[in-house]
Write a structure and sequence with these properties.
Helices cover 69% and strands 0% of the residues. The chain is mostly helical. The longest helix is centred in the middle third of the chain and has 31 residues, at 231-261. The chain is globular, with a radius of gyration of 26 Å.
């Protein structure tokens, strides 16, 4: 077996790392299962059926056709079951026996009625959203002052054209699962926990690999040879390869479990900025017309990139600190420093916004990627600039680590 294969095998077969990976996957499964409830399958099936029969674009014809079909279904339901229900939504709201065989049909009708009813208020809801209003809310929320106020107004003024396009293209009028916060569960919980957990696992993996010889007292024997002095590059390759495989394994298993319980069947072409995807006081205001599928692809690209950047930073730290536990705590303190950085900003300084361009902030907020919904990270190029800048920084750090290592004493 070559040296690269040996290093890779050593990392991927570490009992501690395998245990941590299993715990992270288990955590994701628990998060996913806690977001699932008995009614969800019936409601999702009703929504999926609507999309299959009428499409995912909720225009006037869609509303008219569904409303007419709802009346026919309700009439048939009353005739078949000898009932006099005037509204399935009201009937479900007042309470029904979910063990009753008729409950499923009533829930499906209630979901269909809810879409028709909510469609009447979409335009009104979005007319109340103004860019100046969003800027003022952010200014009050974060107690901004001085140059920060101008920054915030300019930021939302820049989004104004995109907002008009969003409404013109009626991205907000595409059908998504009603009130189930599926998108939020996936990105705010599954992706966030995966990113945080993987950051910890990859820190331990990288530090363990780089400092393995120092930990076991073989550094002087190995690094005194010509091949041994080149071993660090092999370790770097093995760390990156194993990191890629671990990220892939965690995401593949977690997403498989998620989509097996929360199928996006028929919803992949729905826009993330859909009114029905709202899980807070504001809808998602994406900078581009992103569908559920394109958002997921973008999120995966950002996830791999930011975690591999993180690996390079840990690799650099591990070359200079020859104790894996010390590396972990130094990285932990550094991450905490990045979190605290915006809080240390002088009053009125735009450094509050610049301090958000860090891998740590990116890792903590995957549900707000590619959007103007989170005021402090609402810039159009936030993700791209953060990844490009830190990719450059990480590259310099790795290059510097190799140069320094080649000049280091083996003692």
């Amino acid at each position: 077996m070559n040296v690269f294969g040996y290093e890779l095998r050593k990392l991927l077969r570490s009992p501690v790392l395998l245990s941590l990976i299993s715990l992270l996957i288990l955590l994701n499964v628990l998060v996913i299962s806690s977001a699932w409830y008995d009614m969800s399958a019936t409601e999702r099936n009703a929504t999926t059926s609507l999309v299959e029969n009428y499409g995912h674009v909720l225009d006037e014809n869609w509303v008219f056709d569904v409303a007419a079909d709802n009346e026919e279904r309700l009439t048939a339901f009353n005739e078949t079951n000898n009932t006099t229900i005037s509204s399935a939504s009201d009937q479900v709201a007042h309470g029904i026996d979910f063990t009753d065989p008729l409950a499923i049909e009533l829930i499906e009708l209630a979901v269909r009625e809810a879409y028709v009813e909510d469609a009447q208020f979409i335009d009104e809801e979005y007319e109340q959203i103004t860019m100046n209003g969003l800027a003022e809310e952010a200014i009050d929320q974060y107690a901004l002052e001085g140059n920060q106020i101008e920054w915030m107004h300019n930021q939302y003024a820049a989004y104004s054209e995109r907002y008009d396009a969003l409404l013109h293209q009626e991205e907000n009028k595409t059908v998504f699962y009603l009130g189930q916060q599926t998108h939020a569960t996936l990105y705010e919980h599954v992706f966030r926990y995966s990113l945080i957990g993987l950051s910890i696992i990859l820190t331990l993996l990288t530090a363990h690999s780089v400092n393995y010889e120092h930990a076991y007292g073989t550094a002087q024997h190995i690094y005194s040879t010509a091949r041994g002095r080149r071993l660090l590059f092999t370790k770097w390759l093995a760390v990156n390869a194993s990191s890629f495989l671990i990220i892939t394994a965690v995401l593949a298993i977690s997403l498989t479990v998620f989509f097996s319980t929360s199928s996006f069947s028929g919803m992949w072409n729905t826009y993330v900025s859909s009114y029905f995807n709202m899980d807070g006081p504001l809808p998602y205001l994406t900078w581009w017309p992103l569908t559920m599928l394109t958002f997921l692809i973008g999120a995966l690209i950002v996830t791999y990139t930011v975690l591999l950047i993180f690996v390079q930073i840990v690799f650099f730290t591990s070359v200079f600190i020859r104790n894996s536990y010390a590396v972990f705590f130094v990285v932990l303190i550094g991450a905490g420093g990045f979190v605290m950085l915006p809080l240390l900003t002088p009053a009125g300084s735009n450094f509050l916004f610049y301090g958000m361009y860090t891998p740590v902030t990116l890792i903590m907020n995957p549900h707000m990627w590619f959007s103007a919904t989170a005021p402090l990270t609402a810039a159009k190029t936030y993700e791209v600039v953060t990844l490009l800048v830190w990719s450059g920084v990480a590259s310099v750090m790795v290059f510097g680590a190799f140069r320094s290592f080649n000049k280091q004493s083996i003692h």
